[in-house]
Amino acid sequence: LENFMFDQSLEEFRSTVVQDGGISERTIREIIQNSMDAKNDQINEPVIVNLSISKVAKKDLPGIDELFSRIKELKPGNSYSKETVDHMKLQEDLKEVLVLTASDSNTKGLSGVDTIDGGTYAIYAYNKGVHGKVENTQLEDTRGGSHGVGKIANNAASDIHLMYFANTDEKGNKNIGGSIQLFDHHYKGANYRGTGYYAKMDHQSRFVPYINEESIDIFKKPDRGLKIIIPYLREDINNEEDIIKSVCNNFFIALLENRLVVYLEMNNKLIIINNETLENLIAKYYVQDVAQMKKEFLPLYYRTYTTVEPEILELTNSNNQKEPFSFKLYFFDEDENIPTGRVAIVRSMGMKIEDRKIPNNVRQPFNAVLIGGPKEDRYLKTLENQSHTALSADAIRNVDESKKAKKFLRNLDNAIKKIIEERVKEKYQTDGLVNTSDLITDLKWEFNDIVQKKKGKVQLADGKNLSIDNKIEERKGKNANGSGKPDTNEGKQRKPRRPRKTQPKKERESEIVEYIIPSDVVDRIFIGEKEMVEFNFSELVEGKKWNKINLAIKLITGDGEEIDNGIKMDEFYYNVKELLTNTENLTITENKIENIPVTNGKLR
What we know:
Blueprint: H1 8-15, H2 22-37, E1 47-57, H3 64-71, H4 79-90, E2 96-105, H5 120-126, H6 137-142, H7 152-156, E3 162-168, E4 174-181, E5 185-187, E6 190-192, E7 195-197, E8 200-201, E9 207-208, E10 210-211, E11 225-231, H8 240-256, E12 260-266, E13 269-273, H9 278-285, H10 298-307, E14 311-315, E15 325-332, E16 342-346, E17 352-356, E18 367-371, H11 374-383, H12 399-427, H13 437-454, E19 455-459, E20 465-469, H14 471-474, E21 500-501, E22 515-516, E23 522-527, E24 530-536, E25 548-551, E26 555-556, E27 562-563, H15 569-572, E28 593-597, E29 602-603
Parallel strand pairs: 1-12, 16-18
Antiparallel strand pairs: 1-2, 2-11, 3-4, 3-11, 4-7, 4-10, 5-6, 8-9, 12-13, 14-15, 15-18, 16-17, 19-20, 21-22, 23-24, 24-29, 25-28, 26-27
Helix pairs in contact: 2-8, 8-9
């Protein structure tokens, strides 16, 4: 025994977040990608994936008692493994367990059941890090899988890392298999590795699949294709909205092009996700206010892809590349309210790889979709991480290929950046150069004049003059107004100032008054990543009576025009504390900080 930790891929699939979708998005994405890779080309119909969440009796799960007897023997070597093992042990007491099933149609299913050593069945059922290739090179280039480790996402979706699968091949063979991911352990006098397979062994100690004779519906697979069964489903996957978004986010183009149809059955209802329902699902489950779209970009991608004519974008990864990669680019920038620019990198099979940020242009108002062909897919595969959710050169060990990959990604970013710059120039054309020499001269003379007026002189013993500030002369008897005359305002209290009040909004139920505060009642100072702001409302009419305020910051253009929501408070600040009252963790919304306490007209 040497390994007392769970497979690292389990944690990667659990913790790595795709658009904050987490394990739910990873699992659904991997299931559908595998189904689309296995499309039966003899059938001119879209791939169909049936997703269902239900409950099943624990006693109906094959081999479940032996699995828990092994889980009891696990000896964790660190605190993380101990926490996971303790959680797994708690599941034994459940009489019914939550189950996710995913069954595909118009697919090939796994092949080679009767040959054991050949075909895709053995690769899927018993191997890690092996990707089963097809003979058709062009078809292989467009398939989603490449690393051979994505199937572990199904184990990661189970609280005890357990999954089964039922398969029907082209010959009508019906088989059942499965796997569990534990770690090295001692069991009944022998030592075992961490991965267990639901299979028999022949006389040559090779794994042999069981014939599927299960009578429970969730294990039946009557038609050709593959059915995945994940019992002890993690509770955070049992979410209708998350599952629908996982399908739509990652396969919106496959859905639009009628290459994929998904049926989701849960909560006693059936939801159909296809090219006819996609638009309505986007309207129901996604934010429709463009200005709010900072993390989920599907409504923008959908609009871009369905309304914009593509242009051809050619990219290379080296100076001597003979034939460039050719992509279709759908580029949209007709909406100034878009808060965050992203490029959807999409495989030609219709699966999105990443929401790419363009350096120094993250806040530009644009949206784009980039799609290549088989040649481009083949190259993008070499840049993808294991879960096909990001492009990077980090995993390429060959120095020359790594340099090429980095150059390709730079060229991609620069090409998009150039398009953005060109569109900006078209939109905001200047009227020519402006001669500012007179303005600079006038400013210089005015500045010199102010400096001269502010200077005083003092005579030194050696006869030389030393210039000093006028404040020293004030000590010799001048008043605060700078003259020798009496200050007529001395002893008088300053008249309270009345801040500008905006028109109240009729739709508000509660009485909230909006004021535009003069800038000189505010002092700000920055120290590293921290900012301290002090307000003194005591000189404002009724300012001392205020006990709570909401704070918003507006942008002012060069023409004096105020831009509402110009400063996104939740992007600039992540924690706010009022020091005078020691009030911590004030609420930060998109455009304001709420309920800040005021003490005697002041807050800090």
